[in-house]
Structure prediction request, 596 residues.
Amino acid sequence: MKMLKRRLGFLIGFIWICCPILINSVEDFIATDFETLGPIIAANDKLIVSVQDRTAITFSAVYNYLSSSPQYCTLSYPVSNNTELYVTMIAMAKTVLSNNRFVFVVHSILDQKTYMYIASITFSSCALTIIRSTYMFNTTYPPYSVLQVNSIGTLVIYLDDTNAFVQELTSYTWSPWAPFIRSSSIYFLIPAALELEDTWGVLAFFYRQNVASSKYRPAIYYMNITNCFASPNATCFTFPNSYTTLTYEASWQAQVAPPNDALNNNYYALYSMALSINGNNRLLIGAQFMNTVFQYTISSTYFSSVNRRCPGTIVTTGFGKAVGWLDNTTIAVLANNFTIDYIQWRSSKIEVYPIVSSSGFSNTISPYASYPNNRQQIWSGLDGRLINMLAVSGSGCLIYMDYYSKVHVIRPSEASFYVNTEDGLTSTNNTIAIAPNIRCSSGTIKDIAAYGKDIFRYCFLCPEGTFYAGNSSSLTTVCTVCNTTMYFCPWGAVTALPLSVLNIYSQAQVYPQSPESDSFEDILLVNMFSTDFSSNCLINTPLLYAMIIMGAGCAFLLFMGILKLTKKCRKPRRMMKKIFKQTDLIGEGEVKYLLL
Prediction:
């Protein structure tokens, strides 16, 4: 019995010690949380892939999404019941590849192993093919890490706070998971976002310079990855030799920066950042914890010409959750609105800014367009809270994801057509929907194609003197002018209406002319002693009724006087005097003496 109690005590102690470790290691792996750990959507000019189910490893994909007949597929990777796999993030090259290749990272919760998968999609059969799976490391999954494929699809980089994994995607040469070389001035590092071009890239991260530092600081670093093609390993880039710190504009921004124990805690979505580079080497940085979007110009290996936008004076977070270039001169920003602690969500919208110069993005400008708006509401199939947005400059599309991993695609629209954001075309069991482009309804027109800054342009009413019949077989970008001498064409006319079918009615009302006097006393006197003896005015004047009463009184007095002079009528006269004496209309007995 003593031996049993001792073994039971050891078992309880083991559970007491190990359970917190186990809980901490799997706490982030929530199947329904699509905002944690990293992006779960990727796209290029032809292909969109998103994670539909993290634990079942199911993907939604659509190919040729710009065409009138896009191809939809729902893809699953076979999962063993005893592994409890979990997709953490995915990435894809900007260049369209012939085999529709993308990369995703999977972590096994039970044995704490992490793998990188390189997969391709065959849309004719909706088949997912794993080209290569590579074991990366066997430790607790890091709370913060980034994954990215370079723009031409030949290199993939995955790194966390200390280690990196680099794999070349042509010959699939790779090196073991190993620490990367970093500057001695950086003591701790938290990767937040990674954007790669063909031979270089930009990393956004948080850093602390020493143990005593109480808060992390945000920064960006220019990564030269040229050596990684010949020697794909963790030492093919030095990180970071020189970096640019993002400065705070308000004191509250420093207070919400990651605390000194951030790496010991679970992933916190507030500390995610977003990067986007356009064809002119202009860099966008979305720092939602600062409620700020930065714009830099990349010159050689340096960043210059910084400007920023931090909207409003109320302390909030969420602006810059995602950023992107619709074209080389148009910025799209996912503008969420959260409380400063990133707990209470208030709203989500997408704002579009046209940029005419490197210094054209600041607090003094307003968004050119904002979605949703009064005319374009969000699709009912989506949750109002958005967690990611991609601006694909090659196709000119906006792709955004809600909190439950549902994806909606906004495509450019031709003249005479508009994008119906309140609808979504998809297939069964697929979470990607495409907003249809619909012809302008009768009486409205859209004179230009909607792309770039005009992607949310909608149809407007035909002006007066014109009309547009939307059911006409011929497309036009202008409303038809009608002959106003023969036809009636009001605003938003759908056809020219002949004047002969119209009846003319006068709705004008005749009102008396207002007097020149505006004083109440003057108006009262004018109305009481009016000299206008026309029938309408005479009936309404008080003087008429006063004269009638005075005439009746005079007639009565005359009648009483006649009765007084007539001796035969003394008895009726006394009776009438008695009656008027009792009524005493004037008071104080005046009637009595008046009638004596």
